[in-house]
Amino acid sequence: MALTITVNGGGTFTASMEEGPVSFTASLAAVGPQGPAGATGPAGVVAATAPIVYTAGTQTVSMDTAYFVRSPAVAATDGQILAWDAATSRPDWIANEARTLFMSGTNKTGTTIAKGKAVYVSGATGNHPEITLAQANSELASSRTIGITAEEIANNGTGRVIVAGAVENVDTSAFVAGDVLYLSPSTAGGFTTTFPTQPDHGVLLGYVTRSNANNGVIEVVVKNYQELEEMSDVLLTSKANGDFLVYESATTLWKNKSAATLDLLTATTAASTYLSKADNLASLASASTARTNLGLGTIATQASNNVSITGGSITGTTFSGTLSTVAVSSGTGITFLTDLTSQTTAYPGSSGFLLKADNLAGLGSTSTARTNLGLGTMATETASNYALLASPALTGTPTAPTAAAATNTTQIATTAFTQDVVDAQRVDIQTFGSSSSSGNFTWNKPAGAKMVHVRMVGGGGGGASGVCSITANARSGGGGASGGSVSYVVIPASELGDTVSVVVGAGGAGGLGRNTVGGSNAGQNGGSSLFGNYRTIYGGGASGPTAANALGGHFFNLIASGNSGAGGNGQATSGTTAANFTGGQFYPTGGGGGGGAVAASTTPAVGGGGGSRTVGITPIAYTATLAGGSGGTTGGVAATNGTNGDVAYAGGTGGGGGFYITGQATGNGGNGGWPGGGGGGGGASDSGFQSGNGGTGGNGVVIVTTYF
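Request: output the structure for the sequence above.
Response:
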């Protein structure tokens, strides 16, 4: 017997027994006074495992009822169903495989096969087929294509392959929904939307039902298109080039057979057995036998206009041409068709007839004959007096109508028409000044001028001379001068008078060297170039060791303008090279600075180089590089001059700086190139020795281009 007591609270309890009364309720008396403390009990629960949860703060235990009814860890997607996952001891959402047929395949390729790759059965391992990436470039890798991987399968691992149904959550962003996918011949396991053609193999893999980079879906429908010899009623054996596919009724099969087996003539055998129509009987084995077989006589081989008959008689035959050596039988004759007369001789004589050898000389009237032939009066003219219609060779002074302006036909163009075209397109170019000339000129406006383009370059400045001083002091070379400035101006010809005064600026003289202690002598400024009221600024002369900076232009109505290159500074060491120009620039460059020496030094110093210029113009593929003058390297010898412009629109480059050497005269600066190059500075010298002169600047130029 077991007794169970349940305290209800409120001073009552309920007792139950396995036998006897089921239960009874009794009332309790009021709570009495607290009794003495009992002995300390055990420590109680200190830990618990699922599904029991122990709370240490309250020393209570509870049960995790969710353990028995646990929800999936992630939310479901459309079409998934619940399945128990033993690894996590909870349900999980999985794809609804009720509409998908898959198999388990083992990867033995040596590398991981990614999800969404086409595979074929390449063998078997244990209870599973081995799978390898399929490819349409061979029969082996395409004919046994089985499906598309539904998950990534590591090497030696086993995974699912979708044989039919949907492969989900793959990258189909390269396709659009509805695309038909075939096995790729170029990428193992890949897809293509283009049906492969021979020698590649056609394998249908399925259709894109959703295009997405992460959640794409492919409906797998694998179909391997048959090769010809894979068909059940085709038997191909020992295939050879040129075989025919022939139906054989005895076996009800299509078989490959050669032309010889089918007793068919090839081009080679036909040529040795039969005559070609194009051969025109030339390949007959015997032409004589062929004529005999055709019943032809010996006359068949004679020319139609030269028949020889010996013996026998000819009756009732009509001849044309000439009969020779004819014996006429007695009582018979030859009847001529022209007048039906009968003669007993073959040829009655020349009377009344024209001989071929006479070449119509015996005509009764040549005039009447020309009329009867329908010839006109031109027939009696000499051919050399007339030109042929085709490629005539005309002499003298032939005339023709002059076409209207802008005519574009096959009509003859006269000299008058050509001159009109030339006048409409010609250009007049006048250049004022040169490397050896400058000063005042006059431009005369050409008749018919419409637009005038003027390019002006000022004279380059002169370089400064080198300093002369005792060796205890620093001795600086002369500064290089700047190149002349450049301006471009476009002027309507109507705004100009019949004549315009032109001034071409001269290059500035270089400063003179000295052999007594003293500073550098400055070079002179180059002259300005002018076209009427339009002008350009001169190139600055160098003053002492400091180079002349490029001067800004002072222009009117310009389409373009620019500064010339500055010169290089003279130094108490090697002179400074002048600035170089690159790009689409045609400006003159400055001269190099002269060489010198620092205090108490007698080390030789070379002059700086003149500025170079590299011009590249992309639209007309023009590139030109003009070197500046080289700095001096020998005592008493001047630096080299700058380079003259290689085209009319290119500026000259600067001269090199002079060389310093102790105890003797030093080098002069090089002259600037034409047009507008700056002179180089002279080399410094020790007291008592001549310092180098500054180089002379290049003359300017004015180029006037007139358009009509």
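Residues 552-562 have pLDDT under 50 and may be disordered.
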